[in-house]
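thought: fold this chain, then report.
action: predict
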Amino acid sequence: MTKVETLLTIRDLEIEYQAAEARIKAVDRVNIEMKARECVALIGESGSGKSTIANALLRILPENSAIGRGDILFKGRSLLSLTEDEMRRIRGADISMVFQDPHSFLNPVLRIGDQLSETIKTHSPGMEERKVLEKARELLSVVRIPDPAQILSRYPHQLSGGMAQRVGIALALSSNPALIIADEPTSALDLTIQAQVLKLLKGLRDRFNLSILLITHDLSLVSNIAERVYVMYSGQIVEEDQVDGLYRDPKHPYTVMLLEAVKKLQGTDTSYSAQAESREKPAESRCRFLPRCPQAGEACRSKAPEYMTFPSGKKILCCQ
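observation:
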């Protein structure tokens, strides 16, 4: 049996932002591992640090940010030690991103064909113009866009949200990447189109042996595509598990509450209920979920949580 190689390792990563006179730790001791041809989901509410991690992978963090410690290894190579020229050869080539709002990502004054052609030429310099156009049409066909020739002549504003997102996926595929980061790729779409885009991503993963890092706040999407899940809260990974294990037996109170939120939306609410939330900010040395946790005990108020590993491989950040 062939051993599956490790494609991506995020090791003890810490990222801070400078805001006014304070420094905010947006990512705190995060560890993530992905195998080749695996789909991993990174979930959590807005502001939990998910997109900061995605931007760190591509080294496109804003100027007011700094990586305090840790490393990011891609195919065993440290991305943080590369020069900008070396990183540019990886960014968009080995690692691509599908963005949340495709209409914001696509250039509004360029036709779709021009944008695809420019991307193809960037990663395949010297390719004949005829072959560039052939590849552009082929990419649109791969993402199941009908009549690719017609779409190539259109501007982004002439496309629906779902169609524009398919173009975004085609752009991400244009360099034959090993890893695609899908950052909230369906949040701007209606439910029917969401399902179509997720089905498309899953099919592309199988067809091209891609790895996909799916970033989302919507836990209901995860079971349709991912094998493993990392749950983030306030910059930390609070639970890690296989998808079926997470749904069947969530351990961290935050994960439980996320699942209950999905059940409420689906009309299958259970009796789990949280205590009244306190907005008191916990000390850095204590559990960050303390003000919202319905299971908080004295230990949570006196010591920092540590990772606990279960026989199944599930990990949670816990102070009990």
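thought: worth noting. The first helix runs from residue 50 to 58.
final: tokens above.
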